[in-house]
Amino acid sequence: MEKMICRILLLISLSCVCATFVVNVTQTSYQAEENHNITLEWTFTTTADTSPDSLFIFCEMKADHKVSVLFELRGGVVVPESRDQQFVGRVQWDKDVLRDGRLRLHMSRLRTEDSGWYLCDVRTNYGVDFGECRLNVSAVRDWPESERPNSERANRVSWGMIFLYCGLGLTVTVLVV
């Protein structure tokens, strides 16, 4: 009888461990350039009865001792008034993939001040966890006119080199013949 109870307890504890709720990031670090767009993605454990109505998601950005709210979902409903002014109009989400255990946040018109740690806390009726990733947004390099790859000066130099090589080729051909 005692062995039977131990086996039952072991089976129950193993099933609890297997059903642990976990939030992961699909990428731990992102690199982007200013004015570009990026998609940050988290995945989380779902069950057969997972409904967006049972989800509470809170995402924030931490940088330079400042915390900014990026996204909040309460009971399946987005709470736009909680979003920090820095992200208003620049963060969209995919509602369709939420049921599959994925949270995708599309950020547009990136700024260098968007660099930081992004943390999303997901709460359901069967678990709580969070995942975090790093985003580094670099400034667009302002090339001097003389170094710009598509500048008029670069095109003149290219054509000048072509004429020089053609002239040298013709001279060598005349000398050889």
Unreliable segments of 5+ consecutive residues? 6-18
**Elements, N to C (H/E):** HEEEEEEEEEEH
- The rough form would be described as elongated
Strand order of the largest sheet: 2-10-9-4-5-6
User: Given the structure, what is the number of helices?
Assistant: 2
What profile does the largest beta sheet have?
6 strands, mixed
- Number of E-type strands: 10
Mean pLDDT: 81
Beta-strand content: 35-45%
Q: What helical percentage do the residues reach?
A: 10-25%
* Structural class by sheet pairing and helices: alpha+beta
Terminal residue distance:
107 Å
- Evaluate the radius of gyration: 28 Å
What do these coordinates show?
It is a single chain. 14% of the residues are buried. A hairpin with a 2-residue loop joins β4 and β5 (66-74). The radius of gyration is 28 Å and the shape is elongated. The protein is 24% helix and 36% strand. With 177 residues, the chain is of the alpha+beta class. The protein has 2 helices and 10 strands. The longest helix has 25 residues, at 152-176. The strands form 2 sheets. A 6-stranded mixed β-sheet has the order 2-10-9-4-5-6, with no helix packed on it. A 4-stranded antiparallel β-sheet has the order 1-3-8-7, with no helix packed on it.
